[in-house]
Amino acid sequence: MFSYFPGNYAWSTSVNLALMAGGTIGDIHRWLAPLRDSGSTDVFEWGKAWSAMGHQQEGLAEIDVRAGHLTTAGTRLLRASVYHATGQRQIPPGPVKSESYAAMLQAFADAVEHTPLPVERIHVDSPDGMLPGYLIPATSRLDETGRAPVVIVFGGLDMTKELLYAIIGRTFAERGITCLVIDTPGVGEPLRIRGVPARPDSEVPARAIIDDLETREGIDASRVAVMGLSLGGYYAARAAAYEKRISACVAWAGIWDWGTTWRRRWETGAAYHVPWFQLPWALGEQTMEGALERVSRFSLVDVWPEVAQPLLIVHGEDDQQIPLADAARAFEAAGSADKELRVFTASDGGAEHIQTDDPDPARQLIADWLAQRLVVAPRTRMRAYGIAGR
């Protein structure tokens, strides 16, 4: 892995995630080199550097707006939102974190306004209250009725919908698939604004999301896929197991038993990509002991056999967060007849967790795999039977 902060896995993997989402090494080096060179591990100094990085882009965007260069301004603002999002992930809950998160939301909203980004903000009514998300509409290959399949994207531990948009962008839309990036319980707005913790039964929010999608024009709700990054791979698999309206599943990290993984991390002091406060906070617990008890419910050991839809698991050979052996066990246990485990190696690039060290090959592979099952294959079947579309 590219270790900008040697010996500091959490900060280095955050740098890689920011690059994955469209940050630039020039910006990052300009603001983070003093921290690296001094050996500082102060998370508030870390947060200040990322906030300054984001605000610099916002200032440059203002100049672009005055010059009438709105698309350029929007691009800078999207990058600013990535920088604010990256900085606040290492900061404990409190005023500083909240201020940085608000700056992220504002920068993204301004990017949508100025570019304009082709997204539609939606709110899904669920048992946990309203879940906010962004629909990214398909741009091509719609069926005869003008509808497109859709993929619901779940983020990992503290991966917001804005960061998901920056990572995915138009990758699915260009292949004829509408994409929904959404904050679910335990992340983004539900956690920060309403205090809604993560829940193990992800089929509950998934069910509410699909109910909502069935009411929207331009979406073929008979072709709904789920995809999840990191912990989102757990959410996607669990949703597919118990919500049979889902047509395909992608786990961008093959999770087996997340509770056991966390217990092992805690007992060994293993490096992780977020500080230890993150787990209790996301799960609505006050102590690590309570969080470890609650996280034991996040197991897919008995769930994978219930996943019958076409399944793709994407994993890195050198994943330091989820062992490759867990992905292999998940693949063997999955009940899908159409299933694939794609392991990226060091020679491929993308050998780290969710391929942050070289993400684009995995991103394109996932999009092509979903297009084959949601766009190409359904049309082939329809033509074979003389059906114009549902």
User: CATH H level of the largest domain: which superfamily?
Assistant: Alpha/Beta hydrolase fold, catalytic domain
- In the CATH hierarchy, the third-tier topology of the largest domain is known as Rossmann fold
**What's the number of helices?**
14
Number of domains: 2
Mean pLDDT: 93
Strand order of the largest sheet: 1-2-4-3-5-6-7-8
What share of residues are in beta strands? 5-15%
Shape: globular
State the end-to-end CA separation: 46 Å
Count of DSSP E strands? 8
User: Structural class of the helix and strand makeup?
Assistant: alpha/beta
Major pleated sheet: 8 strands, mixed
Question: Whole-number radius of gyration?
Answer: 20 Å
Helix amount: 40-55%
CATH class of the largest domain: Alpha Beta
| Poorly predicted segments | 381-390
H and E order: HHHHHEEEHEHHEHEHHHEHEH
Q: What is the second-level CATH architecture of the largest domain?
A: 3-Layer(aba) Sandwich
Q: What does this entry look like structurally?
A:
- With 390 residues, the protein is α/β, with parallel strands linked by helices.
- The chain has 2 domains: 1-117, de novo design (two linked rop proteins) (Up-down Bundle), CATH 1.20.1440; 118-390, 3-Layer(aba) Sandwich (Rossmann fold).
- The protein contains 14 helices and 8 strands.
- It has helices spanning 9-20, 25-38, 43-66, 70-88, 95-114, 161-168, 188-194, 203-213, 231-242, 258-268, 278-283, 288-295, 324-333, 360-384; strands at 120-126, 129-136, 148-154, 178-182, 219-229, 246-252, 311-316, 339-344.
- The protein has an 8-stranded mixed β-sheet, sandwiched between helices.
- α6 (161-168) links the parallel β3 (148-154) and β4 (178-182).
- The longest helix has 25 residues, at 360-384.
- It is globular, with a radius of gyration of 20 Å.
- It starts with 8 loop residues before the first helix and ends in a 6-residue tail after the last helix.
- Mean pLDDT is 93; it is low at 381-390.
